[in-house]
Design goal:
Elements: H1 15-31, H2 34-44, H3 55-58, E1 67-71, E2 74-77, E3 82-85, H4 88-91, H5 100-112, H6 121-134, E4 138-142, H7 145-160, E5 164-168, E6 181-182, E7 189-190, E8 203-206, H8 211-218, E9 223-228, H9 248-252, E10 258-262, H10 273-277, E11 284-288, E12 298-302, H11 304-312, H12 334-346, H13 350-374, E13 379-383, E14 386-390, H14 399-405, H15 408-419, E15 423-424, H16 440-459
Parallel strand pairs: 3-15, 5-8, 5-9, 9-10, 10-11
Antiparallel strand pairs: 1-2, 2-3, 4-12, 6-7, 11-12, 13-14
């Protein structure tokens, strides 16, 4: 069923109504976007699925939309349709599009040179800013959070002399062979094609929020890194239960395991990240996506003893001794640092985080009012500026529970309905997020369209 009633008085949405709405709205969507359709046809002759990167098709359950421009909280497609963006390119553009302070900084740096394979002054400023936010004093930089996680895991292996990784069901830690594991089987299995069949031999997966399972797996003494998201954000939203995050380091340290916090998504939700607010106290933190306003960047911060270890094992291509396998030609480039410095200083301020969190509360409360007014047995979620729709009252405690409770057709119906009315909703595995560029008017528009979506489904 598309919804589960908790009592006989609650209303239900019929699956046939969901299917009919998707059919009708998809037809409207495609008919209104002829230029995008023409570009897709041309692009398919050159690129699989007609897109330069597979996610641009795979994350949407409709034909790709080609974008012309963006400004602030909105973007416009090549057919002239304007959308308020509650997905923000999967949180990589939460600063907003064409943010003035960042545009000027990037333009200046392009005129001065984008890449030198040598350090620039902005690197010192950005590292210092991140050290202040995350309470970790040493940093290295990459071009994505995936590559930052790759290097963080290599550092953990060097520090511990072990291979094992312990992670949680429902988590996503980047496109890395050993973390692309499927939590729906008794043993880790390949969740993406093209990976080696034995890729999970050093990976152990336990349920999120299960401290006893963590304790049991750490006792074997084979785990180099315990990797955790302060909240699961790629299976809807799974929140940590009381005491879960606070106890992870206490469990890891006696067994010689490093605690790695993946804040790729969650550092968008609070200044300094959720790990700091939850007293997670990780040895290493990984971030990426949005802190350069959409310009590619990733970073990981770590404690002094790990910085000393990295210094001792510095990569030297002509040395017989070898070194820690980190770095890349374009990592730490001047253009990324110019964008990051401007974004951190002008956009991602404490005050801006407070404002987005306040608007996130308005969004979640508005969603709950729509649910209550329709007498549906659903629940709105909220994590600072991130909201979510639960099509039931049960709050999932793990990735497996979240997957079991998901209703993809219902979510697809919401996404396509809202897209046809000027709202670009989050992907099916995420939830609407308030960006730094949004105002109360954007929240009101979202809620107006969401209410119309519910009314339409109940009327069918």
């Amino acid at each position: 069923m598309s919804s589960v009633s908790a009592s006989t008085s609650e209303r239900r949405i019929r699956p046939c109504a969901v299917a009919e709405l998707i059919r009708r709205e998809n037809a409207r969507f495609h008919e209104a976007r002829p230029r995008s359709a023409a570009l897709v046809r041309r692009a398919r002759e050159l690129m699989p699925s007609g897109v330069p990167m597979a996610w641009m098709r795979g994350l949407q359950h409709h034909e790709p939309v080609f974008v012309e421009s963006g400004c602030g909280a909105t973007f416009t497609d090549v057919d002239g349709h304007r959308y308020v963006d509650f997905n923000q390119a999967d949180l990589s553009s939460t600063a907003g599009y064409a943010t003035p302070g960042v545009v000027e900084a990037v333009s200046r740096q392009m005129r001065a040179g984008a890449q030198f394979l040598m350090p620039c002054e902005d690197a010192v400023a950005v590292a210092g800013d991140l050290a202040s936010r995350f309470a970790l004093g040493h940093w290295q930089f990459t071009l994505s959070a995936s590559s930052a996680m790759t290097e963080a895991l290599r550092l953990a292996r060097l520090a511990t002399g072990r291979n094992g990784i312990l992670m949680f069901d429902g988590s996503y830690h980047g496109h890395i062979d050993e973390t692309l594991a499927d939590y729906s089987h008794d043993e880790p299995s390949v969740s993406s094609l093209g990976l080696p069949h034995d890729h999970g031999r050093h990976t152990t997966i336990v349920p999120y929020n299960d401290l006893e399972a963590v304790r049991r797996e750490l006792a074997g003494g084979t785990i180099a890194a315990l990797v955790v998201e302060p909240a699961l954000t790629n299976v809807g939203l799974v929140l940590p239960r009381e005491g879960f995050l606070e106890n992870l380091r206490e469990l890891a340290e006696p067994h010689g395991t490093l605690l790695v916090a993946d804040e790729t998504h969650t550092h968008m939700f609070a200044w300094g990240g959720l790990a700091r607010h939850a007293k997670l106290n990780p040895h290493i933190v990984v971030i990426g996506k949005n802190f350069a306003a959409g310009v590619p960047i990733g970073a990981y911060g770590f404690e002094p003893h790990l910085a000393e270890l990295m210094d001792r094992h510095l990569f030297d291509p002509v040395s017989d001794a070898g070194g820690l396998a980190v770095g890349g030609t374009l990592y730490g480039n001047a253009l990324s640092f110019a964008a990051a410095r401007a974004c951190l200083v002008h956009v991602m301020t404490r005050e801006a985080y407070e404002q987005t969190s306040e608007l996130g509360g308005d969004l979640a409360r508005g969603i709950q009012k729509i649910i209550d007014d329709a007498n549906l047995g659903w629940k709105a979620q909220r994590l600072h500026n991130r909201a979510g729709w639960l099509y039931h009252r049960e709050e999932p405690g793990s990735g497996a529970e979240a997957a079991r409770l998901a209703d993809i057709p219902l979510t697809d119906s919401r996404r396509i309905f809202m897209a046809n009315r000027g709202i670009w909703e989050a992907t099916a595995t995420a939830g609407p997020t308030v960006s730094f560029a949004m105002t109360r008017a954007d929240i009101d528009l979202y809620l107006d369209v969401a209410r119309l979506w519910i009314d339409t489904l109940l009327a069918d």
